[in-house]
Amino acid sequence: SYVLYHDQIIKSGSIPVDPEDRGYLFGDGIYEVVFVYNSKPFGFAEHFERFEQSAQKLDLSMPYDISTFNKLTDELISKNNIVNGMIYIQMTRGVAPRNHLYERNMQSVVTGFAKSVSLDSIAASQTSGIQTYLTEDIRWLRCDIKSLNLLGNVMAKRKAADYDCQEAIQHRDGTVTEGSSSNVFIVKDGTLKTHPATNLVLNGITRQLVIKIAKDTGVPVLEEAFSVEELLNADEVFITSTTMEVTPVIKLLGTRVQSYKIGPVTTKLQKDFKQVIEEKTSA
Ligand code: PLP
User: Fold this and answer.
1) Among protein residues, the one whose CA lies closest to atom 3 of ligand 1
2) Which domain holds residue 215?
3) One matching Pfam family, short form (predicted)?
């Protein structure tokens, strides 16, 4: 396969890994995951706008402009013959002798790869729904940055899997924030609710698109924090992410337990979301 290194697409296995890269030493870097449908990246502009915002928030310098990233992404897709799949791109602050203090104007290190994904595997959980595990959100207070520091998310996901759940739902002092790698929505009396795009959650690209679709089609949306009690009393619950699209939640496990039906609002948004993918990525 072929991978991205700086602004080149090269054969995998030939990337020099420097142990003094701040990405390894401090998790000092950012990333994006873009889905590929029909060999086209979906929502590329939105993902790279967020990439630039993450860079800016961490005082990281962008070595290339968006058109270069776009070109490299297309090349990753074509060289790896990806029809449906995902593109991962990360950028670390670069290589320097280990010191918490970073110097400005370092040479960022950009790497990335592409993977084919079977759409059948995501379709299955979208049809049947997933089990989720309620757990405390132990992460830092800048979850709006898509940084490489994902230990809180990683620990939450492992715990969820240990209880036979596909995703964790995190809460901070009883306020639901987000999944370990997804945003969380509830439906109550026909109205959607999801945590506002503050420092406590990642403003998901899928989240933003689902909110737009809902508003455009007359589904009321409140970007308001909601409690674990509201989660328990919701009519429908679903998660959103680049790799899971709109996936219904059928069970909550953990300190609180609840079952949900896959409801009409979730099903409608799933369908509308597929429609947008189709429109934007058909030949
Ligand atoms: N929240 C977290 C913590 C994530 O890691 C992700 C994606 O991986 C999301 C939300 C969903 O974001 P997006 O829809 O842009 O994939």
Assistant:
1) 181
2) 122-281
3) Aminotran_4
53 sits in which H/E element:
helix 44-57
Give the neighbor-by-neighbor strand order of the sheet with 8-11: 8-11, 2-5, 109-116, 85-92, 29-37, 40-41
Residues 160 and 64 in one domain: no
Give the tens place of pLDDT for each residue, 26-58: 999 999 999 999 999 999 999 999 999 999 999
92 CB under 6 A from ligand 1?
no
> In terms of C-beta density within 10 A (0-12 exposed, 13-18 middle, 19 or more buried), how is residue 220 classed?
exposed
Task: Quote the pLDDT of residue 105.
Answer: 85
- 242 in contact with ligand 1, CB cutoff 6 A: yes
Question: Tell me, what's the ipTM?
Answer: 0.99
Q: Is the CB of 90 under 6 A from ligand 1?
A: no
Distance CA 135, CA 274 (A): 30
CA of 177 to the centre of ligand 1 (A): 12
Atom of ligand 1 nearest to the CA of 47: 15
Give which of 249, 251, 247, 197 is closest to 221, Cα–Cα: 197
Q: Do 104 and 159 fall into the same domain?
A: no
Last residue of a domain, one of 102, 117, 132: 117
| Model confidence pLDDT, tens digit, residues 108-127 | 999 999 999 999 988 999 99
Domain boundary among 58, 93, 117: 117
C-alpha pair distances (Å), 186 with each of 51, 65, 197: 27, 37, 15
Residue nearest to atom 7 of ligand 1 (CA): 181
